[in-house]
Protein 1
Amino acid sequence: MGQPEQHVEGVGPFATRVSWPLPEGGTVVWESRPARRRGALAIRAPGADPVRQARADEVAIGRLRRLNALAATAFVIGGALFAAGAGVALFGSGDALESASIYFAGGLFFNTGGYASLLQVVNAPRHRVGERGLVTGRWRWWSFEPVRLDWLSAFLLFAGTLVFGVNLVDSFLHGLSVQQVNRLVWVPDVVGCVLFLVSGHLALMEVGHGRIRVLARDLGWWIVVVNQLGSVLFMVSALAAFTHPSTGSMVNVNLANWGTFTGALCFSVGGALQFFERP
């Protein structure tokens, strides 16, 4: 028996939604984000809205719940620490070492959240066209799946957190020239922000199935949008933190600190919302 006719949506080579008919009538709809976050497929009766969801097995559901809780907690704490580090500069002592130490601690939580997000994709239950359920694979700590939009988005997010780590470690160095500060601290900061922005854009394309859309009733869309706003604010902060070679001062210190403060709060809010996007 051949494969049933399927309808694929997405962007370019990336599929984000696939639907196929059932022999007895009705349609199964797989969407990448609900499948990996909630472990569910939508089953539509003939000519009707979704009437129920087919869940993955308990092994997959348990994995998704634990990974979701870990990622959400890590981003809430990491965002709060980044906001605290910027708060020290804005409202506190202004001590650079104190801020750098808080940022570094926050960066470790961002690393954790980024890797947990990647593990959610790597260990998500998979669909099989023609069937009405999700298949649970063996546990994996890594995979290379650049043809999956969700994998690419999560990988770039994790890579961004690692690049931010370079920026945070280098910020502890003393006696640097202006050129060294820009090369060792500012450049990794900008690169990390670019990776965050590209990751967020891909996530928007995933939830919109190839288009940038407003989906006000979709919790996943809100999480992606809030996090992308945080990435934009981080980029504003990074650009404002460039040090002029001629003067030895930043473009705009206050804008750099406020961008970090508000962007970090966005990631904390996104993490808090993520607690509710679980199986």
Protein 2
Amino acid sequence: MSNITVSRLSQKVIGPAEPTPGGELRLSWLDRYPTQRALIESLHVFKEGHEPAKVIGGALGKALVYYYPLAGRLVESDGDDDDGELRVACTGEGVWFTEASASCSLKDVDFLEHPLMISKDELLPHPNPTLDPSHENKLILLAQVTEFTCGGFVVGFRFCHAVADGPGAAQFMAAVGEIARGATRPSVEPAWARDAIPDPINVRRGPLPEPSKSKLQYLAMDISLDYINRFKNQFLEQTGQRCSAFEVLVAKAWQSRTRAVNFRPESEIHLCFAMNARPLLHQTLPPNGGFYGNCYYIMRVSATCRRILHSSVLEIVKLIKEGKKRLPAEFARWAKGEVIGDPYQITSDYGTLLVSDWTRLGFAEVDYGWGPPVHVVPLTNLDYIATCILVKPSAQKPGARLITQCVAAEHLTPFHDGMINLEY
């Protein structure tokens, strides 16, 4: 497919469509966590549209009236008491917006199923000429709309994690969609409310993950409903309790990875996953659900390699559910500064698997006027941190899609074989 080209037709900065407040806004403790400075990248594939760049670009400017901090820039305060903490300067400068066209149909590139037939960097917004890093690092949001010859289009986002977590980013995209469909304002009123997030004393942030020489391999697997329901029904029969597709597939992935890598039996291995902490802060967060900043907690489930090796998938599901139950107590201890260590620290240790669930964030429901996306493609830039992401599959494939980058090349085949084996 080397003859496929993506042409960037225009690029501009879209500011709020009306005057917005100025000044600086403080970010929360969690917003300012060092790893949050990264731009989270994703592709959102839509089967049809009509002048999508024009429609989305216009709606973007109107949505920024309500989400005006996203049109600002990241700055470091220079006050003596703030120690150069990260803030948002509400300058109204706008978000970087690129319009592009591809020389093929979405069908020609298999609707961007893996492996990508077009480089992700062709579909993501990158200012040209390249901005000085000191300027690009201040940007909060960049978007690109690429139209294909079939009328379908792809929206590529680069969204700064310091200003919004997954549900927050999806909330903003949904607001753009509502306005694109004719609404005069978002149905959910956005709220900054960063003071509602705990600012624990005496909690030291852990170091950034150290790059390693390991190059972890990308693997995407579509999991059928029959596969998922088999384990869910077995769990219900054995325990009288229900479990989720996320719990089943994460348990299966942790087990398969442990068996494929063959860690020392007595070594301790870890499963880490982010949990939405908004329900725990319902008394301090605005009641309308419009908070879009970072509000999650990373739960850690640990076990010896031997235990995971010899446990069934259902027993591992129990471990995960027990870990989830600890959330209120652990979050409360963290908020009071009573935890030992840093629960938010991300590590490149091969014994740690970081998992996340994208199926409930809201990306799959965003509609700019022609229906929700065919599928959403999360992108990762660090191939030395073991990750596993659950996303909704493309519309034609009911079930779930598991996107993993969690094993080295020599462990990829046994990991895959373990995932498809239903007998464990």
Protein 3
Amino acid sequence: MNREVPKRPKHIVVVGAGIVGASLAYHHASKGTQVTVVEADGIASGVTGTSFAWINTSCAGIDPIAALRGGAIAAWHRLETQVPGLTVRWHGALSYGTQDGRVSPESLLIDRSRIAQLEPQLRQPPGQAVHEPEQGALDAVAATHALLAAARALGATVLTHMPVLGFVVQDAQVTGVETTAGIIEADVVVLAAGTGTAALAEKLGASLPILASPAIFLRYQAPPGLVRGIISSHAMEVRQGEDGTVLAAEDYVDDAPDNQPAAMALRTARAIRNELAGADAIAPEFAAVGLRPMPFDGVPVIGYLPQVGGVYVCAMHPGVVLAAIVGQLASEEIVTGEPASALEACRPARFLA
């Protein structure tokens, strides 16, 4: 650790009520720590609300956070047993024609007949696809609410629509958070505010290169039974919720009119109709740009700021994938003072000159 922190912090303030902040709050509360969550807007109002929420642990090339990513799925399975109302659809994923090179240790190469069994609505199943049966997806907004409800049941306080204005610093140690409703004292402040994390750290003299990386999130009204798992192909990236809603994700191209969310929704709808039998009635319901917190080097930023004591940062993409394992490991090292080896590649100190 770069600065002295309490061996057993009595009060943790988590800034941000997205899925990462909610996981941190729940894990801290489950350890008996007093937790207050402070959110500038509403619960899951940031990128969590525009997340495709594919729990996808595959990676292309060398993975600097392989140890962290490797525990992500098991951490979500654990939370499903602990948190009332938190459910993940473990229906697996099919990938083909994307040529992005992502694989996981559980990847299986399957043929056309098996593909057709898994996704019978595909009009023209490819000859081969990568099947990753251990992967799944969740409703990120519902999961965030479930985590915060569980944290509240353990004594946590959640304060929404309360922006953080600054910090109280004494002898190079943060001792409180200044909000629009006054000062909240804290032993440790955890910054988990998505793309707003860098601006908060800047108030403390820490420059973190966390970029706002845009992606298109789409939601459609659709008949049930179109998609059983997750399909990621050259034509579309889609999954279907329990209520029949079809979710899709697209890369952000530029701000040209043809690439605005509404136009992308129509274009993707055409692609889905072309690819899936029974999708003729699919209709766009919601389209938006989500801004993901993307560290400059692509590696999560997790750990204490070296510039000032008592401030811990959690900023990452993919946030939904890593929220469960990061909440578990970060809360353990904050409470015990013992560094988690799986987080070593993620420390903010790497950005110091």
Protein 4
Amino acid sequence: MSVVVCADVGSTYTKAAVVDLDGGRLVAAASAPTTVGTDVLHGLDAAVGAALASAGVAEAPWYVCSSAGGGLRLAVVGYEPLVTAQAGRRVGLSAGANVVHVAAGRLSGADVAALRAARPDVVLLVGGTDGGDFETVTHNATRLAKARLRVPVVLAGNADVRDELHAVLA
């Protein structure tokens, strides 16, 4: 199992999650108070240590961001506007992200330019029922790959094309 630690240093709590990259699943999570009164790294070390211990993992690479002071800049690209794009937007907002762009449907060149101008930290690519239409999410993943955005793309769509689209986005 290949795992990484994803951590968020917030203004009140520091959260850490251990993610299984091979299985695409959350293995464990933990939080600790953010220690701004001493050293913010104390809270980070505590949260990461607790998450790793809970996962039964000795060590893993860390990816750390901070939502204290504006939050993660999230762009959402949905399959269609009324359900998937709005669901992705709401998920981002409820997680504390700063949603800077929302698009839906097949991305055009102008859509990619608008997304790039929004300067997201992460793109959330959502939509497509498992076993259903895969053309829109495939088109959008291909467009994003060709755009060579220097941000991670999180794929939360049709699981039937997950491996194919992972390869496209890699």
